[in-house]
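Q: Sequence in, structure out?
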Amino acid sequence: MGTSRSCCSDAYLFYFDIRIHIPFCLHSEGNIMIMLRRIIFLAYFKAMRIISRTGIARVLLPLKARKFLGQLLRSAVCKVVALDLSRPYDVMGHRMYLDPRSESARDIAFGTYEHDTVQIFQKLVKPGMTVIDVGAHIGFYTFLAARLVGDNGRVYAFEPNPEVYNILVRNIQINGYWEIVRAVPKGVSDEKRIVSLYVPRERSDEASFYFQESADNTRIEVETVSLDKFFADEG
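A: Exactly. Output:
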């Protein structure tokens, strides 16, 4: 009886001080396509960082032209780098379903999301800490915190948007973090109240309690709570 050998490999992409881990199986066409999409997006991301750091665009183009071309290029890249939102993605060691209405979905999926902030966060959060994630969205920092605080720590994830909260809960379930993470379907304010949350139709991660003059917004009523009252009730 013959033996089979796994042809799964690990790949790494390096640019600036960022290392991107790309696990894939050579025999899987689906995983190879994911890898290729990730490489395309990372090449775009690297090019944008070079342009930003060198100031080339500021010298050659006025602000309006830079914004227009930037949006046009990102839109083109996003069409090429399509995401399969029916399945979870590997995100810094966690499995995560993404928000289909989030501008940051590709950055999260392909490892380019808030790299500098993540590095600072990882240095500050220690085992056994209690972390409060206000506006937790789908749980990117929630799960990063959960891994850092460990079994003796606690993470409270507040997310008032019902659609996004459902994704957050789903991600908590598939990562087995119920003992560490407490998901709260509320916003945080100075007191308990019902307020309007304005959610951009295509950018749910930019939802705000402050009115934004845009026809692109959806208004929903959500509950808020003060942290003092919440933790007093928690005991």
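Residues 29-54 form the longest helix (26 residues).
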